[in-house]
Amino acid sequence: MSTQRRDGLPVTQWGVDAGDAALAVLAVHGRAQGPSFLRETARRFGAAPVRFYAPEAEGNTWYPRPFLEPLASNQPDLDESLATVDGYLAALAGAGFPPERVVPWGFSQGACLLAHHVLTAPRRFAGLVLCTGGHVGPDPLPPPAGTPLRGVPAVVRSVEDDPWVPSHRVRETAELLRRAGADVDLRIDPGTEHVITDEACAAATRLLVATAARAGPR
Q: Using one digit for the tens of pLDDT, what is the confidence trace for 132-146?
């Protein structure tokens, strides 16, 4: 569903040179957005030794219906988009960034897609940043078996009265991540706007810097 280069990596990239990056950030945009939105948002991050890779959904949407509707209403697009994430993770691994050196970051529909991916096909990423999103579907997901995300730092951010993503789903998703072993930093601020706050950007930067330091040079 997404445009990609012959090497399988997203066309839109930014950050430090790939050869100098300790981590890759897979940046997944929201509905009616594109990679440029996350690139502009990343300007609000502090310096970190990472390279960003941002795929673009066909028609700027990863699935057609609201994320709390029955899963069938978003098929086959949802499964295709989850497979797209898998494809990019495989391409990043081929470029020297295995999952333990990748931080998925998403906003809104992109955060929902990533949350669903991480909870249904868990792997030990370097970290996870979910800004205003939760897993897809009307009902809570069963937690992954065991603790496949043990030690994975996860920043989860939203606002209490977001018009598109109810805070209860954000909290449910954070709890599922915790039960899977992730080290979750959850914060839901008062508000009604569908935005990535300055505090969320600062928290993402702290995660990237700390995780890059632990990972060390490639």
A: 999 999 998 998 999
Q: Are strands 50-54 and 12-15 parallel, antiparallel or unpaired?
A: antiparallel
Q: Which residues pair with 103 in a beta bridge?
A: 25
Place of tokens 């930067």: 205
Place of tokens 């494809």: 87
Which residues, including other chains, have CB under 8 Å from residue 141's CB and lie 6 or more apart? 116, 119, 120, 135, 176
For residue 136, what are its two tokens?
A: 């897809």
Q: What's the chain's Rg over C-alpha atoms?
A: 16
Report the C-alpha gap between 172 and 34 in whole angstroms: 27
Check: pTM over 0.85? Answer yes or no. Answer: yes
Angstrom distance (rounded) from CA 85 to CA 94: 14
CATH architecture of 12-215: 3-Layer(aba) Sandwich (3.40)
CA 76 vs. chain centroid, Å, equals 21
Query: Distance between CA atoms of 113 and 44, rounded to whole angstroms?
Result: 23
Q: What are the Cα distances from residue 16, in Å, to 9, 26, 52, 172?
A: 16, 14, 8, 35
Q: Judge whether 146 and 177 are in contact, CB under 8 Å.
A: no
Position of tokens 């090497």?
7
Tokens 């040179």 -> residue? 17
All structural domains of the chain with their residue ranges: 12-215
At 54 the pLDDT is: 97
